[in-house]
Amino acid sequence: MKAEWIAVDWGTSHLRAWAMQGDRVVDRAQSDQGMSRVAKGGFQTALLSIVDRWLGDSPVDVIACGMVGARQGWVEAPYAAVPSEPVANVPVRVPGTDPRIRAFVVPGLKQTTPPDVMRGEETQIAGFLAAQPNWDGVLCLPGTHTKWVQLSAGEVVSFRTFMTGEMFELLRGQSVLRHSVGQGWDDAAFSEAVADTLSKPENLAGRLFGLRAADLLQGQDGAVARAQLSGLLIGAELAATRAYWLGQQLAVIGADQVANIYAQALQQQGAFVETADATEVTLAGLALARNLTRQTA
Amino acid sequence: MKAEWIAVDWGTSHLRAWAMQGDRVVDRAQSDQGMSRVAKGGFQTALLSIVDRWLGDSPVDVIACGMVGARQGWVEAPYAAVPSEPVANVPVRVPGTDPRIRAFVVPGLKQTTPPDVMRGEETQIAGFLAAQPNWDGVLCLPGTHTKWVQLSAGEVVSFRTFMTGEMFELLRGQSVLRHSVGQGWDDAAFSEAVADTLSKPENLAGRLFGLRAADLLQGQDGAVARAQLSGLLIGAELAATRAYWLGQQLAVIGADQVANIYAQALQQQGAFVETADATEVTLAGLALARNLTRQTA
Q1: Tens digit of pLDDT for each residue in B33-43?
Q2: What is the Cα A276 distance to its own chain's centre?
Q3: Over the stretch B249-286, which tens digit does the pLDDT of each residue have?
Q4: Which of A162, A167, A209 is the best mutation test for B, with the most CBs of B within 10 A?
Q5: Is the pLDDT of residue A292 over 70?
Q6: Is the pTM of this model over 0.80?
Q7: B-chain residues within 8 Å CB-CB of A242?
Q8: Pseudo-torsion of CA A67, A72, A74, A76, nearest 10°?
Q9: In a 10 Å sphere around its CB, with 0-12 CB exposed, 13-18 middle and 19+ buried, how is residue B113 labelled?
Q10: Cβ A117–B216 below 8 Å, yes or no?
């Protein structure tokens, strides 16, 4: 089946594509050919291998967001500086593609003080605002690198990135804690850990090794350790972002377990939290970005 | 040359051995056959491969400390519970060894609340106290897992373990920061980072990704990033251990760069810091442990 256009979310670890008719998804595909696995020069091949069946004789627009716009990516899409609309600049055309596609990459955002960058989330933010144009407040976009984003009058005013997701994976999978952190979950252990490092962020450093010791000495359950590790890290992040969420209009963008975990931690602090589906806002943002390319075509 | 006895420090990543005559080192050897690389049943072979030349017809005492006494180690040397002298119990004889050696492993220490364990540092503490029998105060033993130890009247009263060294290695080598953290060092950047997370430990979570962003946006030097990463982590550890070091008699045990870094961070806070050489106190502690085996032989 031929697509009218193709939406692409191309991050560090995954490549996801959707065959679109207007704003309707008619097919989808994904692979593990994220940025970190694709060599310079290999991007078009990686994409075509999953979208080939959606192409025809006339060129199809491909609109991509994410790390694919980095310097080492398919084409560099220079950052726009905040304060800025989330997608202020026209997506950058990839030169010299297969004639069956016209490919564009959405630029990311940068902030000078403190230094910070995003690629991909700007598209989700644009999609979120498309559905709620007058929404002012703070977005939390959890992931490998969680973003906290202050929105006002349709612009990204400031943002901060936290490596909480990556730290969790490194500690769970590569550190001495890998022997003690198991599968499963324990809500009470998570809540206690969040509350502890949120009120005393220094306890993050102080409690991590205790997850190993509690296993060695008391045979503590691996599910409890997993929830505690997550809670200690997220509590420390919430301590650092207090000004972002305390008393603010707040939405968490995400579909998977990690978004629910963040919402739970925030609700535990009395915050009122909206949620929005990550895929939905990504597709809405890519549709907006596509319109930008057509206005200037 | 034959050794009178053999001192062994057998940790997770390294195996170090010294040929001893009384308390004098006459030869030394090491290999990368730490605990994590030796399979159950492979310990004697790993050791003999580096100490073989020191053995003779009559059995030589081998006194080992470290992770080699863990359940997955050469022989399990059960933890003694604090409060306790650092080496309170007789080292555990390894059964069924090669007849040219009589091998013993020094027991570690455990603490119930909060749960914590050590293996190896108890021997260093015993060696430190052997030279300064009436020393009361707090020891800091930096490493992959840094230990803070409160000593009083010759006993370990309490201790806490921090994964600061392991976190540094994971973030430097495996996370997105690996692209931005280089070699070299910058004292001013280290001091600023220590002061920041010591006063505001929540800034650890808030500043890590900034090391990457400052490189992307401003081309920040990799040596500065390295010193900042170390400083942010150590500052957060010092925030968590304030009760251990503030106004206390204080000594840092270590020979290498990391001990100097800790001493610098503590002196910056106005603490008076003694230092002791790690190898020296390890050998003194192993000599004490050997005496325990002979008193009961």
Answers
A1: 998 899 889 99
A2: 13
A3: 999 998 678 889 999 999 999 999 999 999 999 999 99
A4: A209
A5: yes
A6: yes
A7: 202
A8: 80
A9: exposed
A10: yes
For residue A25, list its beta bridge partners: A20
Instruction: List chain A residues with CB under 8 Å of B237.
Output: 205
Average pLDDT of the residues in B92-100: 96
- Does a cis peptide bond (omega within 30 degrees of 0) precede residue A83? yes
Which residues in A lie closer than 8 A to residue B163 (C-beta atoms)? 171, 175-177, 205, 208-209
Instruction: Note the pLDDT of residue A1.
Output: 82
The Cα of B212 is separated from the nearest Cα of chain A by a number of Å equal to: 8
Rounded CA-CA distance B183/B29 in Å is: 28
Query: Rounded to a whole number, what is the distance in Å from the CA of A53 to chain B's nearest CA?
Result: 34
The one-letter amino acid at A146: T
Distance from CA of A261 to the nearest CA of B (A): 18
Chain B residues with beta carbon closer than 8 angstroms to that of A221:
none
Amino acid identity, position B21? Q
Closest CA relative to residue A81, chosen from A133, A117, A127? A117
Backbone angles phi, psi at A28, to 5 degrees: -145, 160
- Say if the Cβ atoms of A240 and B174 lie within 8 Å: no
Contact A48, A62 (CB under 8 A): no
Chain B contact set for A204 (CB, 8 A): 201, 204-205, 236, 240
pLDDT above 70 for B297: no
> In which residue are the tokens 């500690």 written?
A171
**ipTM of the complex, rounded to two decimals:** 0.94
